């Protein structure tokens, strides 16, 4: 009944592997588990999400049990534990952004993409996620795509950004 | 012109680079500290400065430093809390992004003072671009001999590690942060033991906020007494305030503690007044966790005096009529805002961010959110308001970490000051659920 | 002789004084006095390092921190983790704030609990049932949907009924501390946390069955026992065998002539005394596998124990508790902690049983 994952499926590219080793070396002797969050980010950057195979790979790299990785990946909201579209739009839904019209702009965004929160467009271009305060409340409404912050959103601005990203 | 301790050079073009920062007098504090001062002397200056933790709790930084246990042969750690996730707060983001070397300089001074040879900056993972900025700044400082082995020929070694979070507000709580830094789930630890005795990797650890650590450069350059001369009473120095909501000029402002709340809201130098054509309804002065105040209480104390932007003045009157300075997340609400909706929104935030370890917070935050959602969407019952007050009381003070309190206070305070508005939602559901509907009954708008 | 003894510290709990070694927690000190003053513990488990602090069922008020610093502590504290100080004064059942907080904890723990006791294998020996009985209210104020999960087999022997789980983390500590490889853990966050393996995996190693014994509720159950019986129809008997893997000291649960379940032995706080291996637990179900020692001294939390239905341990009103607490130091015979329940003749049970049915004042 045990469904073991295919261990050889995921590996870091050479430059990421180098980066991973550099990260692991940052921590004191025996504390390499500290590298877990950064390595999961690295994995997600490469794979688009934190796949079970990838998590098992990270577990082997750090010499920890796979469950220790799953526990962490499911705790933190930035890790996508399911496959996602090419662009993940992480939209701030918290109070201060809402005061700046965040909810109206969000309705527009959903309409524009034709999807609801948590869904991916049929062409696989966009996944929509709601997140909490992104520490940019004075510049709200705000969403984030990968590392980039898009601020002072309006319906028009959202259309422009989606057009830009769709290219 | 008001004194600027942190942001004086923030608008200088290129200040994010080592060379420009250095030209503006940067890293002189590191030189002074490492070449001419002992670690204890630095701790002494920080104590004299009276600077209080800028992460929210306001605990005196010098005192925290002097509690650090120093057992022989055990490493000590300094961890900078750059998890900044409290709704309404975006000052650390602003500081790190624009003037990263100020934090690096503060980290070097503080690490030296505490005897730490490896220090961490834990940045919320969403700010990955800021992490790259910090890593670049660290590499520059290292190339110039301000970091790494044998700093400025003094024999003192220091490595700085920038650690990304993974998306969890709770990792701003210092022990959850340490767990996260150890590669675990961000479950806060039971205290005692406190981090000063058993922190990162079970070693003595100091955790301080970005803004707190950044002040040390100025303190070393100008002395603790000079710092203490700024501000008012026990609220010494300046504070970065993140201003958001219905004001004309949202943004981050460095103010001398003691500025009247009224001036801060209405002066052109700062918020520039309530959004044109609107009236001031309510204020959350220190990030979403602190009690919300109606406009009149936000501006004046119970005795009629002006309320000031200071730890003492904002908390004047206790929770009955006061609030807290907290992290300085200053959220302004005008008369178009629905307090019930906002309370539900904050409540959902805490529900979403609870780590789930202890039962009052895990279960109670979800319950409050659901009841508030029910009221907001026109399905409230008469007993719901009292139910919310009771549930918030059963959470408050009974949890492992202060997130439980942080979830309880916004609900309790909104009901304390805006009970009629909740009642209106329950009594007039069809009216209250109209798009854009807001309670228009009696209240103190300014 | 005298000087090798550690200096004992004196603590007062609900008006009763007790002397304990320094470093003892309030909970352990209270347990030393006896079940009537021992705070309930839903997550703390003495044999498991790092357990405790999570459920908050054991909250007490410290009315005086120590003889040196007699100030009260500002908040209620978790008695399972807070060490006693000399001269500390603790209020447990005698403090209305504590009773109120525990009331809240029961309510919180039951919010998302399915309350399926009639079909739950744990019924009759469930810590949550006991806690709710002692500290709960009769009605619920919660009217939203409860969180539900599908039940799940984790290996051939253990079934996980996540809906019943109270997230005490005991099973996680157990897997960490007494098995060589942990494959299950806590996934997700907040009230969406769940115990699981993430990817379908069998919990499969020699000591995995112990997670069943440590679980305070019916979330982890023995598949070889499930629905076979109700615990109150069974007869527990202590037995041992020469086991190459574990101590081989177990409790056999008989229905008639058949061994229907094997568990580790538990102390009066329902804590496992010695963890046992899966062979003893799941494979040795014939009387001939075992050397019988005699009837088990039944755990306090088991319905088989008449302890629960004795008049003096039944939930009295707050006032009665207060009186009982003050009454106790003089009248030692009220201390039932030393009584061996098994020794009592059956008539004795029959006689005191009706008082359990009396309505709450
Ligand atoms: C739920 C919660 C979230 C917190 N978030 C932050 C945060 O994002 N940044 C921060 O500096 N402190 C935060 N704190 C406060 C820290 O626990 C800690 O007190 C602080 O980092 C200490 O630094 P300071 O003394 O310099 O303020 C938080 C506390 C709690 C309870
Ligand atoms: S109060 Fe909430 S966030 Fe803090 S430890 Fe408990 S469950 Fe976790
Ligand atoms: S399954 Fe049982 S032992 Fe494990 S956490 Fe849940 S209640 Fe505790
Ligand atoms: S509320 Fe949206 S960034 Fe803070
Ligand atoms: S037993 Fe102490 S908190 Fe659970």
From TrEMBL, chain A:
Pfam families recorded: 2Fe-2S_thioredx
Gene3D superfamilies documented for this protein: Glutaredoxin, NADH-quinone oxidoreductase subunit E
GO molecular-function terms, A-Z: 2 iron, 2 sulfur cluster binding; metal ion binding; NADH dehydrogenase activity
EC number(s) stated in the UniProt entry for this protein: 1.6.5.11
Residues annotated as binding [2Fe-2S] cluster: 92, 97, 133, 137
Key words of the record: 2Fe-2S, Iron, Iron-sulfur, Metal-binding, Oxidoreductase
Protein name: NADH-quinone oxidoreductase subunit NuoE
Organism: Spirosoma validum
Organism ancestry: Bacteria, Pseudomonadati, Bacteroidota, Cytophagia, Cytophagales
Name of the gene encoding the protein in the UniProt record: nuoE
From TrEMBL, chain B:
InterPro entries for this protein: NADH-UbQ_OxRdtase_51kDa_CS, NADH-UbQ_OxRdtase_suF, Nuo51_FMN-bd, Nuo51_FMN-bd_sf, Nuop51_4Fe4S-bd, Nuop51_4Fe4S-bd_sf
EC number, as in UniProt: 7.1.1.-
EC category name: translocase
Underlying gene: nuoF
Pfam families noted in UniProt: Complex1_51K (PF01512), NADH_4Fe-4S (PF10589)
SUPFAM superfamilies: Nqo1 FMN-binding domain-like (SSF142019), Nqo1 middle domain-like (SSF142984), Nqo1C-terminal domain-like (SSF140490)
One function term, GO molecular function aspect: oxidoreductase activity
Function, as annotated: NDH-1 shuttles electrons from NADH, via FMN and iron-sulfur (Fe-S) centers, to quinones in the respiratory chain.
Keyword annotations of the record: 4Fe-4S, Flavoprotein, FMN, Iron, Iron-sulfur, Metal-binding, NAD, Oxidoreductase, Quinone, Translocase
Family the UniProt entry places it in: Belongs to the complex I 51 kDa subunit family.
Catalysed reactions listed for this entry: a quinone + NADH + 5 H(+)(in) = a quinol + NAD(+) + 4 H(+)(out)
Needed cofactors: FMN; [4Fe-4S] cluster
Name of the protein: NADH-quinone oxidoreductase subunit F
Ranges of residues in domain NADH-ubiquinone oxidoreductase 51kDa subunit iron-sulphur binding: 340-385
Top-level taxon of origin: Bacteria
TrEMBL record, chain C:
InterPro entries documented for this protein: 2Fe-2S_ferredoxin-like_sf (IPR036010), 2Fe-2S_ferredoxin-type (IPR001041), NADH_UbQ_OxRdtase_ferredoxin (IPR054351), NADH_UbQ_OxRdtase_Gsu_4Fe4S-bd (IPR019574), Prok_molybdopt-oxidoreductase (IPR050123)
Requisite cofactors: [4Fe-4S] cluster; [2Fe-2S] cluster
Gene Ontology CC: one annotated term: membrane
Keywords: 2Fe-2S, 4Fe-4S, Iron, Iron-sulfur, Membrane, Metal-binding, NAD, Translocase
PROSITE patterns with a match to the protein in the record: 2FE2S_FER_2, 4FE4S_HC3
UniProt KW Glycoprotein keyword: no
Domain 2Fe-2S ferredoxin-type: 7-96
Protein name as it appears in the record: (2Fe-2S)-binding protein
Annotated organism of origin: Spirosoma validum
């Amino acid at each position: 009944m045990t469904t073991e994952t295919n261990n050889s499926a995921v590996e870091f590219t050479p430059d990421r592997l180098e980066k991973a080793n550099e990260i692991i070396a940052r921590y004191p002797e025996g504390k390499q588990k500290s590298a877990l969050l950064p390595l999961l980010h690295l994995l997600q950057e490469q794979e688009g999400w934190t796949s079970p195979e990838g998590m098992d790979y990270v577990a082997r790299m750090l010499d920890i049990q796979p469950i220790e990785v799953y526990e962490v990946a499911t705790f933190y909201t930035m890790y996508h534990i399911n496959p996602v579209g090419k662009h993940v739009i992480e939209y701030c839904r918290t109070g201060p952004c809402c005061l700046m019209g965040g909810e109206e702009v969000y309705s527009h965004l959903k309409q524009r993409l034709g999807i609801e929160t948590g869904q991916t467009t049929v062409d696989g271009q966009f996944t929509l996620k709601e997140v909490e305060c992104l520490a940019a409340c004075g510049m709200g409404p705000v969403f984030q795509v990968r590392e980039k912050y898009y601020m002072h959103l309006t319906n028009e601005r959202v259309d422009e950004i989606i057009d830009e990203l769709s290219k | 012109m008001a004194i600027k301790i942190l942001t004086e050079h923030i608008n200088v073009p290129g200040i994010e680079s080592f060379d420009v920062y250095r030209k503006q007098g940067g890293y002189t504090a590191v030189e002074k500290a490492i070449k001419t001062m002992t670690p204890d002397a630095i701790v002494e200056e920080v104590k004299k400065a009276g600077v209080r933790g800028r992460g929210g709790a306001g605990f005196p930084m010098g005192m925290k430093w002097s509690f650090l246990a120093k057992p022989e042969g055990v490493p000590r750690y300094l961890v900078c809390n750059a998890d900044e996730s409290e709704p309404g707060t975006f000052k650390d983001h602003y500081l790190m992004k624009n003037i990263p070397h100020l934090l690096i300089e503060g980290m070097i001074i503080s690490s030296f003072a505490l005897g730490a040879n490896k220090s961490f900056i834990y940045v919320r993972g969403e700010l990955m671009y800021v992490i790259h900025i910090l890593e670049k700044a660290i590499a520059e400082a290292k190339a110039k001999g301000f970091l790494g082995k044998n700093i400025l020929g003094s024999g003192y070694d220091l490595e700085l590690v920038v650690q990304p979070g993974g998306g969890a507000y709770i990792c701003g709580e210092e022990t959850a942060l340490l767990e996260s830094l150890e590669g675990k789930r961000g479950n806060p630890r039971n205290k005692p033991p406190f981090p000063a005795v058993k922190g990162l990797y079970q070693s003595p650890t100091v955790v301080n906020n970005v803004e707190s650590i950044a002040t040390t450069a100025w303190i070393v350059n100008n002395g603790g007494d000079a710092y203490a001369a700024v501000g008012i009473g026990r609220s010494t120095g300046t504070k970065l305030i993140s201003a958001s909501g219905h004001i004309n000029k949202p943004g981050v402002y460095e103010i001398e503690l003691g500025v009247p709340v009224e001036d801060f809201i209405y002066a052109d130098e700062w918020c520039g007044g309530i959004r044109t054509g609107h009236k001031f309804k309510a204020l959350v002065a220190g990030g979403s966790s602190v009690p919300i105040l109606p406009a009149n209480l936000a501006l004046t104390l119970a005795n009629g005096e002006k309320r000031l932007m200071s730890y003492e003045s904002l908390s004047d009157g206790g929770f009955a009529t006061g609030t807290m300075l907290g992290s300085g997340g200053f959220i302004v609400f005008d008369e178009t805002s629905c307090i019930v909706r906002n309370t539900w929104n904050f409540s959902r935030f805490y529900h979403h961010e609870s780590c789930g370890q202890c039962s009052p917070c895990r279960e109670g935050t979800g319950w409050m959110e659901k009841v508030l959602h029910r009221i907001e969407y026109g399905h409230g019952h008469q007993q719901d308001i009292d139910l919310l007050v009771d549930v918030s009381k059963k959470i408050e003070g009974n949890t492992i970490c202060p997130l439980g309190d942080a979830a309880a206070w916004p609900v309790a305070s909104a009901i304390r000051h805006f009970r009629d508005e909740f009642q209106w939602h329950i009594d007039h559901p069809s009216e209250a659920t109209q798009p854009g509907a807001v309670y228009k009954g009696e209240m103190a708008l300014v | 002789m005298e000087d090798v003894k550690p200096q004992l510290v004196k603590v007062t709990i609900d008006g009763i004084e007790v002397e304990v070694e320094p470093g003892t927690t309030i909970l352990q000190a209270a347990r030393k006095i006896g079940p009537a003053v021992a705070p309930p513990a839903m997550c703390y488990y003495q044999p498991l390092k790092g357990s405790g602090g999570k459920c908050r069922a054991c909250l007490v008020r410290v009315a005086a921190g120590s003889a040196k610093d007699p100030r009260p502590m500002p908040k209620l504290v978790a008695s399972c983790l807070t060490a006693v100080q000399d001269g500390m004064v603790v209020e447990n059942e005698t403090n209305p704030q504590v009773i109120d907080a525990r009331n809240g904890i029961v309510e919180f723990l039951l919010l998302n609990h399915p309350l399926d006791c009639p079909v739950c294998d744990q019924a009759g020996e469930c810590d949550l049932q006991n806690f709710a009985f002692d500290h709960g209210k009769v009605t619920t104020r919660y009217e939203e949907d409860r969180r539900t999960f599908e039940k799940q087999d984790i290996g051939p022997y253990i079934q996980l009924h996540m809906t019943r789980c109270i997230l005490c983390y005991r099973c996680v500590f157990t897997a960490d501390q007494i098995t060589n490889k942990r494959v299950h853990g806590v996934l997700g966050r907040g009230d969406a946390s769940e115990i699981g393996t993430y990817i379908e995996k069998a919990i499969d190693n020699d000591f995995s069955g112990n997670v069943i014994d440590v679980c305070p509720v019916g979330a982890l159950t023995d598949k070889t026992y499930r629905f076979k019986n109700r615990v109150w129809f069974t007869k527990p008997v202590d037995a041992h065998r020469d086991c190459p893997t574990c101590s081989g000291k177990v409790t056999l649960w008989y229905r008639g002539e058949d061994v229907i379940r094997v568990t580790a032995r538990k102390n009066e706080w329902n804590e496992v005394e010695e963890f046992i291996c899966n062979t003893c637990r799941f494979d040795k179900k014939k009387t001939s596998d075992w050397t019988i020692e005699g009837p088990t001294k039944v755990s306090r939390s088991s319905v088989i124990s008449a302890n629960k239905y004795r008049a003096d341990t039944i939930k009295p009103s707050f006032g009665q508790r207060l009186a009982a607490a003050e009454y106790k130091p003089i009248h030692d015979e009220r201390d039932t902690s030393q009584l061996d329940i098994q020794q009592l003749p059956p008539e004795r049970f029959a006689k005191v049983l009706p008082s359990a049915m009396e309505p709450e004042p």
